[in-house]
Amino acid sequence: MNGENSRAHAGARNSDMTPDETRVRVQAPAMAVVSVAVLPGDRRTPRALVKVRVGPVEIACSYARLRRQRWEVLYPKGADGEEGIALPEDIERELVEMVRAAVEGDAEVARGLRRWW
Known about the structure:
This protein is of the alpha+beta class. Helix content is 36%, strand content 27%. It is built from four helices and four strands. The chain has a four-stranded antiparallel β-sheet. Strand 3 and strand 4 form a beta hairpin. Residues 1-14 have low confidence and may be disordered.
C-alpha cells in the first residue's frame, strides 16, 4: 500500500470505531519518593525538598508554606519562570499526596518544619 491509501484506510477504520475504542489507555508510571530533607538555613518561607521518581524521571519538588497556614507542593520552574513540568491531573494529584505524606511521615523533616506548623 502507498502512504495515501494507508492513511485513507486508517481514517475509515478509526471512523468505524466507537469513541471508547479510539482512546489510548496508558498505564500510570510507577512513582516513589527518593528523598526528603529540610532546606538548610533560616528561611522566611519554610520548605522541604522532596525528590520523587516518576517512571524514569526524577523530579525535585518543594513543600512550602506560602500563604498563612497553607502548605503547597511546588514544581521546578523553567528559565522563563513557567512551570518546568506538566503532568496529567491524576498523576499530579498522586504526586502531591506522596509529597505531603513523605514530609509529614519523616520525623526529622517534621521537626525541622514544626515551628511553622
